[in-house]
Amino acid sequence: MLYYHGTTEFSCQGPGAVTLGKFDGVHRGHRKLLRKIREKEGMQSIVFSLGIRSGQTIYTAKEQKLIAQEAGVDCLIQCPFVPEISRMDPETFISKILKDRLHAKYLAVGPDFRFGRDRSGGIDLLRGAQDRYGYELEVVEKETWEGRDISSTFVREELAAGNMELAGELLGEPYFIAGSVRRGQGEGHRSFVPTINLAVPEDKLLPPFGVYMSRTWIGGAWYPGVTDVGNKPTVGSFPRGIETYLFGAEEEMYGESARTQLLYFRRPERRFSCEEELRGNIMADVAFGKEYFGG
Known about the structure:
- This protein has helices at residues 28-38, 61-71, 83-86, 90-99, 123-128, 130-133, 152-160, 164-171, 187-190, 275-292, and strands spanning 2-5, 16-21, 44-51, 75-80, 104-109, 136-139, 144-145, 148-149, 176-182, 196-199, 210-218, 221-230, 241-246, 257-268.
- With 295 residues, it is of the alpha/beta class.
- The strands form three sheets. The chain has a six-stranded parallel sheet with strand order 1-4-3-2-5-6.
- α7 runs antiparallel to α8.
- The radius of gyration is 22 Å and the shape is elongated.
């Protein structure tokens, strides 16, 4: 996959089947757009993501790249929201970006897609410009859940509430955190529960701190497990991160790439009175996890 991140110096070979948006959560509506551009035979599938949102995102840029690769996208452009792009006249955007640099012959966008200076461009302009710039426009209806449009805002609400099952339904797969296994402080080993630790970037949106039933892809296999999300208040002051006990994994995994899916929120994080109380709760969480995953 051709990949551009943080630069306005990009171009993709054509003819291009293009979708555009923010793609913060890569939810079911976004995945529908990805399928549309992948279905166009003889065209390069191109995702143009404009980094408008500041602060934390549901999926980081690296996680979005991982999803795009697995979806079979040919070119992913994560374009920074800089004046030369954000202040561009909408028709100039069509001419200079869609036509000249992405060689668009097909566009798939949602019904509320906006672009250009002051978000002044929309569906009507794209539809009216089809003949002039030689592309076909398809406006793709939103995916819904029980009558409500699926959106990144909807996903964020469910993550904030710890509703991991519904968040996963909206996303099209369980919410996950991806990264490399790092060395922790050994708390898991001192509690007789060996764990792996993943650092969490500051721009990653996390659900409530606490204990989750999880599934982790590492070393070419999936492992069920129990994951702690938080900063370990009982044993010290640590940066936020995730620590996972993997059922059935015994070998050292430092430096391995991993992806941990959070499936079910068991309990909030809390400060225990002593390490013995902490250890007892960890073992109770592990026992719950084994029952959750059917032994």
